[in-house]
TrEMBL record:
UniProt-recorded name of the protein: Mannose-1-phosphate guanylyltransferase
InterPro entries per UniProt: Man6P_isomerase-2_C, Mannose-6P_isomerase_type2, NTP_transferase_dom, Nucleotide-diphossugar_trans, RmlC-like_jellyroll, RmlC_Cupin_sf
Upper taxonomic lineage: Bacteria, Bacillati, Bacillota, Bacilli, Bacillales
Organism encoding this protein: Sporolactobacillus nakayamae
Nucleotidyltransferase as UniProt keyword: yes
One GO-annotated biological process of the protein: polysaccharide metabolic process
Length: 458
């Protein structure tokens, strides 16, 4: 069986830790087996490896999450990178084309699709393996996995079975989205299941849909024509049109950690980062990403989250309102993880007198990693090395760098940096327009950079 993990979304419900660059699946707030902080995507991939599915898994994602995924999972996990965001049907179609033309998958292979961030026991992924047998047994177009409800939730969608004999699976009659409590109670009595976003199909099923749309089946060709795929969800494009849908019940632990109140229930510690929570602050969590102490006194049933993007102080039960409250609030991400390390915005100013912007960042580069050999067209940069050592390349010359060194990078100057040991620097950008897109990359690896530099100085 092949697995496709869907990694998308932007961060509003877990603001201020999550943002447009760091979705909830990348937040390191859970503990792994070694008591180290890990993210939801790291937890999920560890579980997939436990049941032997890691090697057959690919991740469909957007360009903005590639470096975050590589930073947290390494570079061995195949990434299906969507040229643009066009909803779940185009993402799954592109992944199907990848499996069809870039791997040894056959058209009869079962493919399971699931979100990248379920919070579940490992038994959940073992149950996914049973979807292949269900496809064989029923000859269904789609085999879904549904969670047996534990209460009449208004937050989830329900799979409603057809009337008839009881089996170890259900034949799906229709779906009901987020019913009120009374209807949810009725649905549960009728053996309906929560829709947890997991489904399986034969590879040929989606490939045939691509053929019917007159689109290429080759992965690289489809990627180039990605904008021709209908911008629509898989549910609307495929599920609603399928004539034979079955679902496999899952009776184990499953939880959506999409809001602060649900996420904090599963955190192993009530405090991450610098600060103090008084003893009389019952059921209160503090997550602080800044190097400033935060003190919480006599405040119970609250979440206090602090990041470079902002500060949230909320009653836990009220915390799901954050998405609505933040609607229309537009701010560039102040913290991002990259494959080479991370950066944090420390300050930003705009000066109307000369129409210039000034942005200050703290950049951390992992030992052995490097920034690409690139230039900027609309800004200059001043780098001050504060920790670690490495090599700096500029216009064909490589030299060593150490704490206290200051580098001035003017516009159009080709430059790169490599960390021999973990390297920290303060970067000050000055220009008329400071945007991440103002980067013209020439070379990516340090080996390439060394080959294209004629001088090396100590």
């Amino acid at each position: 069986m092949r697995l496709v993990l869907l990694s998308g979304g932007s961060g509003k419900r877990l603001w201020p830790l999550s943002n447009d660059a760091r979705s909830k699946q990348f937040l390191r707030v859970l503990e792994d087996h070694d008591k180290k902080l890990s993210s939801m995507v790291q937890r999920v991939f560890g579980q997939l490896n436990e049941v032997g599915l890691g090697q057959s898994t690919v991740i469909a994602t957007g360009k903005g999450q590639v470096e975050m995924l590589e930073n947290q999972l390494g570079k061995d996990v195949p990434l299906i990178v969507e040229p643009e965001r066009r909803d779940t049907f185009p993402a799954i179609a592109l992944a199907a084309a990848y499996l069809y033309t870039m791997t040894d998958s056959s058209l009869d292979d079962a493919v399971a699709v699931l979100p990248v961030d379920p919070y579940v026991d490992t038994a959940f992924f073992e149950r996914i393996l049973d979807l292949e047998n269900l496809l064989n047994e029923t000859k269904a177009d789609l085999a879904l996995m549904g969670v047996k409800p534990t209460y009449p939730s208004e937050k989830y969608g329900y799979m409603v079975p057809t009337k008839g004999e009881n089996k170890d699976y259900i034949k799906v009659d229709h779906f009901t989205e987020k019913p009120d409590t009374e209807l949810a109670k009725t649905l549960i009595k009728d053996s309906a299941l929560w829709n947890c976003g997991v489904f399986a199909f034969r590879l040929k099923y989606v490939i045939s849909i691509l053929e019917s749309l007159g689109l290429p089946l080759n992965y690289e060709e489809l990627s180039q024509q990605f904008n021709k795929l209908p911008k629509i969800s898989f549910d609307y494009a495929v599920v609603e049109k399928a004539k034979n849908i079955v679902a496999l019940p899952y009776d184990g632990f499953w939880k959506d950690l999409g809001t602060w109140n649900t996420l904090t229930e599963e955190m192993a510690t009530k405090q991450i980062g610098k600060g103090i929570i008084s003893d009389d602050s019952a059921n209160t969590n503090l997550i602080n990403e800044l190097d400033l102490p935060v003190t919480v006194l006599g405040v119970s049933n609250a979440i206090v989250a602090v990041s470079p993007d902002g500060i949230l102080v909320s009653d836990k039960e009220q915390s799901p309102r954050i998405k609505e409250v933040m609607k229309g609030f537009d701010q560039r991400p102040m913290y991002e993880e990259r494959k080479w390390g991370s950066y944090r915005v420390l300050d930003y100013s705009r000066y109307s007198a000369n129409n210039e912007e000034v942005l200050t960042k703290k950049i951390v580069i992992k030992a052995g990693a490097n920034l690409s050999y690139h230039c900027h067209h609309m800004r200059k940069e001043v780098w001050t090395i504060v920790k670690g050592s490495g090599c700096y390349a500029e216009n064909g010359v490589i030299r060593s760098i150490k704490p206290g060194d200051v580098v001035i990078v003017t516009a159009e100057t080709l430059h790169a940096i490599k960390a021999d040991e973990a390297l920290e620097l303060i970067e000050v950008q000055i220009g008329s327009q400071l945007i991440e897109e103002d980067i013209d990359r020439k070379l990516m690896t340090w080996k390439e950079i060394e080959m294209n530099c004629s001088q090396v100085r100590g």
